[in-house]
Specification:
With 393 residues, the protein is α/β, with parallel strands linked by helices. The chain has two domains: 274 residues, Zn peptidases (Aminopeptidase); 113 residues, Alpha-Beta Plaits. It is built from eleven helices and 16 strands. The strands form four sheets. The chain has an eight-stranded mixed β-sheet, with helices on both faces. It has a four-stranded antiparallel β-sheet with strand order 10-12-8-13. A two-stranded antiparallel sheet has the order 7-14. Helix 4 links the parallel strand 3 and strand 4. It binds zinc ion (2 copies).
């Protein structure tokens, strides 16, 4: 049985590669994946599935019904590309100027289509449902959130969710599965410090927003060093600062913007609260005022215990126990986290680097590419986990 499944996935390899390369050639930015969504819909329709489009703008949902009532497992792939000019010289490089699949989402979409095909042919082997979710806008658009807003977790109600990311930080053949915190939350803030302008020769007449900003920048780092445990991981980062007009003028305003990342929801809230208190104290001490716009972005991605065990077993069957690792959490973020806030699930990483073939560039790089053998590994792991879930549910 196990070998039959491996063989079935392997037999699909050329099709997975062809699908991936097609998506790669015609990348689309977040929330505008109309061609990709059309292709996905057509593929699922050809299989014989009911398909709903326009969920979360360009999201596509397909449903595979098993041989009787049971639980519903969501399998999720993201479809969007990035505003990057591709610099690779592969024959299937992007035909859309300034847009590139530089994160591997073309591979995720291809994998889920392949898995859909194999699950559909096995639909008499399990009860319950597989909900295939092709989401738009992972790269900062919160496409998962908008799909939930449009009811993707209902009709039928989703009981659990699985997703994967091809990952060139790990070599081909390795799979990383981890329980608990896997990826960071990502919040954004914009801070406007207001002082009072004046002549640089007469500091007593003004309120220097640049001096205040200097104190604010260094004090915000004390959130990390003094407010949270040395064992906890968090980042407070200011990435942009604007203020002042000339050497001899006291700046009346400085705008700072940055991000906050944490692996723990309590620390996320603590940092946001303490940030405001520190700003209030420092800025008022220097006679300034401020407005802080703090935007809660993607939540932290948390893998649930049972679903993680399920994926771990599937990964071991796919690549062997020696090739399944539990990598440390990443401080990057991922909007699969929105789904995993609502339903138990697991998001795992499939190694896709192969320096011998030149596949070693990081994600979001203009030369990014991955070893397509990883498509088979990802598909097999997802397929095994899905079948195990619906057999034991
Ligand atoms: Zn990305
Ligand atoms: Zn990605």
């Amino acid at each position: 049985m196990a070998d039959e499944l491996k063989g079935d996935v392997l037999a699909l390899k050329e099709e997975l590669i062809a699908l991936r390369r097609d998506f790669h050639m015609y990348p689309e930015l977040g929330m505008r994946e109309t061609r990709t969504a059309e292709k996905v819909k057509a593929y699922l329709n050809d299989l014989g599935l009911d398909v709903t489009t326009g969920i979360g703008q360009t999201g596509v949902v397909g449903l595979i019904e098993g041989n009787g009532p049971g639980k519903t497992l969501m399998l999720r792939a993201d479809m969007d590309a990035l505003p990057i000019q591709e610099k690779t010289d592969v024959a299937y490089r992007s035909k859309n100027d300034g847009i590139m699949h530089a994160c591997g989402h073309d591979g995720h979409t291809a994998i889920l289509l392949g898995v859909a095909k194999l699950l559909y042919t096995r639909r008499n082997d399990f009860s319950g449902n597989i909900k295939l979710v092709f989401q738009p806008g992972e790269e900062g658009y919160a496409g998962a959130f908008f799909m939930m807003h449009d009811g993707v977790l209902e009709n039928p109600t989703v009981d659990a969710a699985l997703g994967l990311h091809l990952f060139t930080t790990f070599p081909l053949g390795l799979i990383s599965v981890r329980e608990g915190a896997v990826m960071s939350s990502a919040d954004l803030f914009s801070l406007t410090i207001k002082g009072r302008g004046g002549h640089g020769a007469h500091p007593e007449g003004g309120v220097d927003a640049i001096l205040i900003a200097g104190h604010v920048i260094t004090s915000l780092q004390s959130l990390i060093s003094r407010e949270i445990s040395a064992q906890a991981a968090a980042v407070v980062h200011i990435g942009k600062i604007q203020g002042g007009t000339a050497e001899n003028i006291i700046a009346d305003q400085v705008v700072l913007s940055g991000s906050v990342r944490t692996l723990d929801e309590k620390i996320r809230t603590l940092i946001a609260d303490r940030m405001d208190q520190i700003l209030k104290g420092i800025i008022s001490a220097f006679r300034g005022s401020y407005t802080l716009n703090y935007t809660r972005g993607y939540p932290g991605l948390i893998n649930e215990t049972v679903m993680t065990e399920l994926v771990g077993k599937a990964a071991v069957k796919t690549v062997g126990p020696e090739n399944v690792i539990e990598a440390i959490p990443l401080m990057g973020s991922e909007d699969m986290a929105f789904f995993l806030e609502k339903v138990p699930g697991c998001f795992f990483f499939v190694g896709a680097a192969n320096p011998d073939k030149g596949f070693s560039h990081p994600h979001h790089h203009e030369l990014f590419n991955f070893d397509e053998d990883a498509l088979v590994i990802g598909a097999e792991t997802l397929l095994r986990a899905a079948l195990d879930y619906l057999k034991t549910a």
